[in-house]
Amino acid sequence: MADRRLFQEIAEQIMALIREGTFPRGSRLPGERELAARFGVSRVTIREAEIALQAMGEVTIRTGSGVYVTEGPAPTEDSLPNVSAFELTEARSLFESEAAALAAPIISEGLLDRLDELLEIMSGDDPDNDERANEADREFHMTIASASGNQAITYVIKTLWRLRNELPQVRAMHESICHHDGSTRMQEHADIVRALRARDPAAARLAMRRHFNRLLETMLDATEEREIEELRRKSAESRARFLISANLR
Q1: At residue 76, does pLDDT exceed 60?
Q2: Model pTM?
Q3: Cα Rg for the chain, rounded, in angstroms?
Q4: Which of these, 79, 90, 137, 171, has the minimum number of CB atoms within 10 Å of its CB?
């Protein structure tokens, strides 16, 4: 994948924290020194990220006062809801499991062959192929949704995939776990195709549901690990301050 400027990556991470509520709308961002320590980058990189966020309308830089998260425009009917990765995965489990069950008796051999081709793309080991594998994953699920023959379900699943790819906090969560569950995820997708080829609605529903249930469990584990690391970071900072204070006595 093309190299990205570090400040852009930090800006995306800060924006994800804003949208998940860690930095609430209207609040003041932590200072440059604290953010630099949090993300492991220089204060210059933090400053560049904040300038980028201001250009995007996400923050306002007030000289002598700090950087404040903007209140944000009022949502419109076309706005995507600010959902969590957990909420989205629960919704996908409900709709995509039923789509698989509906598709099983009627999916064509041509579409089944296409699912096999998409499995091959997703199984690639090339680290620079992440974007292509992600698009193959989307096409895999959308192919099954379309094969259900229910346009309303297809529309809902297409919208859920927009949330999956366009909400920064959701995209970040998926990117953080997808590099560690490749073989398991591939087996789950293969199980779905196997059930569809058997024309077994119950098995297709179950295979899809197992895929999402395992994904939810992985997300929970990743969240717990991140919270533990955050506690360790805060503990280390507190210990450092205590030692500095003790040495000054």
Answers
A1: no
A2: 0.62
A3: 22
A4: 79
Alpha-carbon distance of 239 to 112, in angstroms, equals: 58
Inter-helix orientation angle 32-39/6-19, to 10°: 100
The token pair that represents 235 in the structure block: 């503990």
- The crossing angle, in degrees rounded to 10, of helices 168-178 and 85-103 is 70
Are residues 102 and 148 in contact, defined by beta-carbon separation less than 8 angstroms?
yes
Q: Are 7 and 45 a contacting pair, CB within 8 Å?
A: yes
pLDDT surpassing 50 at residue 1:
no
Q: 61-75, 119-133, 148-162: which has the highest mean pLDDT?
A: 148-162
| 123/222 same-domain check | yes
User: The tokens 């492991």 sit on which residue?
Assistant: 40
Domain extent, residue 108, equals: 85-226
- The pair of structure tokens assigned to 124 is 């690639």
Q: Is residue 249 part of a domain?
A: no
Any domain includes 185 = yes
At 230, list the tokens.
């955050």
> What is the widest separation between alpha-carbon atoms in the chain?
78
In 3D, which of 87, 111, 78 has the Cα closest to residue 160? Answer: 87
Does residue 204 lie within any of the structural domains? yes
- 163: tokens are 């949330």
Q: How many whole angstroms separate alpha carbon 172 and alpha carbon 20?
A: 11
Same domain for 218 and 96:
yes
